[in-house]
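Morning F.,

Quick status update on the modeling queue. The single chain you submitted on Monday has been processed. Sequence for confirmation:
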Amino acid sequence: MTVNGALQGKVSLVLGASKGIGAGTARAFGRAGATAVLASRDEQALNRVADEIRAAGGRALVVPTDMGDAGQVASLMTRILETFGRLDVAFNNAGSGHQPAPLADLELSDFDEAIRVSLRGTLIAMKYEIPPMLAQGVAPSSTCRRPQGCKECAEWARTRRPSTA
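Structure tokens below.
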């Protein structure tokens, strides 16, 4: 549980929950008392993370989802709302990318996939997350994008706090 119990009993969605920052966030939400809805394309990895959350006494729901596919994200939100009746927290961390490479060696299909998931996917997720959150009085305030390879972005993200206005 968090120091102030702010996540106790909340419904949280973590897109990109199969590994790395997303998996760590899902585990932290579970430890804090939130139900963790885990979404990414890798169902096996999601199930491993969900098993860890449940083994620690938390609640988790696995919903395989491609964040770059609007239909899948809409179905994810429908499942969350039908199962829990609300969404309190959304952590949009899914991403796709390529290994650093000289520009001339970059495969255009890798670039297109990175844009489809990391940029367009974040927009799609927020499009479907925000309306039900606003309807229940939750004010969405931020989204997470991986600042890999961008020291300035990491510093910026580290120093930002959600608006309280």
